[in-house]
Amino acid sequence: MDSVELAFERLHQRQMQFLQNASPDDWHRYADNHNWNDRLDGLFWIVSQPDCDRATAMLTFWKGEPACYDFETEEERMGEDEYGVAPMLRYIAERFNTTGYPRSEIAYDCLEDHGLNFPEYAAMGKAGRQADIKAIIERQQEIADPLVKLHPDLQLLHISGRKVGGYADKSDYYDLFPDQVDDEGSEPDDKMATRPQHFVPAAPSDASSRIRALRHQGGESSEEAASPWLADRPSDASRDSGETQADAGLSEAMFDAFGLIVNMAGVGFGVGFAPKHLTTHSASPLLWVAAIVGITYGSYAVFSNFRKMQRGVAALGLVIVPSWITTTTTIATLSGIGVGRTYLALLDNPAVTPFTRYGFITAAGIGLLVLSIVMARLLFIPRALRDA
Questions:
Q1: Would you tell me which of 22, 27, 67, 291 could form a disulfide with 274, CB atoms 3.0–4.6 Å apart?
Q2: What pTM, to 2 d.p., does this model score?
Q3: What's the mean per-residue pLDDT of the chain?
């Protein structure tokens, strides 16, 4: 174990000791603020405590994105993998269906506790939760084990009680934790910040929940509206005002992402094909100018689409993780270059018929369009997004 790993391990042990001496209210604040990219030992410990509040268990369960995991069939036990989400989801579901969480003093709200209580996202956030509940129930129809079924309590959108945690509480919450340790594992001096390295504050909105809510937006049937967990749903008129704008913004941003990717593929094709072809065939200066103008215009279109996509995503309160943009655009560019080089080889081969060349460029063009659609959609999966 190197010095950095040792430092984090010491910090983790100190924070676990803090949790063991803290109150159930502070456990709830921990669950509310925990960064799910970090190890989950603290959450494992909290949800397994007899005094863990029902709202804390519900908050943790839904932050774990249960609709994205087949936790019902998970065989690994909670704690065997310090990053394992599915075993914890199964544990919480089984406990709700057995001993339950008797302590119920803390309030829970499916919108406020997941950063979706802004007016423009509230209706969609509720619709997203309802859609997730429906999807899990439908998935579990084929599951025989009753202990892993979605308990009625986990289907509630609200629980009354005391307000604990929340975005305004973050500063006070972090002041409770042990000081940082530096990379060598030594104790900090008094001038160091007290916010721990291992727990990064969550943004006021949950990016993955919000983007999923945008995609789930839309009306349910009257039968669904009669379900108990759909109580107090907004009217169609109130939903239309926020959802239509947000959905339009999402669609526009995704279209700009498609433009970004497809233009990157086009620039790649130009770079892979034009210079060598023009050099080999001693092209006139006019053709060189046309090639340069074409590649330059494609590059400008890439820049324009990128800026419009960023503005559209920012309007939704989100940011696309830069590494995802780099990866998808690189794949598109290399694919375009590959198509350009292959088409050049076919042109230079006298044994290849025009039909074969035209068939290839048509199929390759369709392939690049499909690739661009896939790459653009990848930029809008929850993992590729974070809050602005």
A1: 291
A2: 0.48
A3: 77
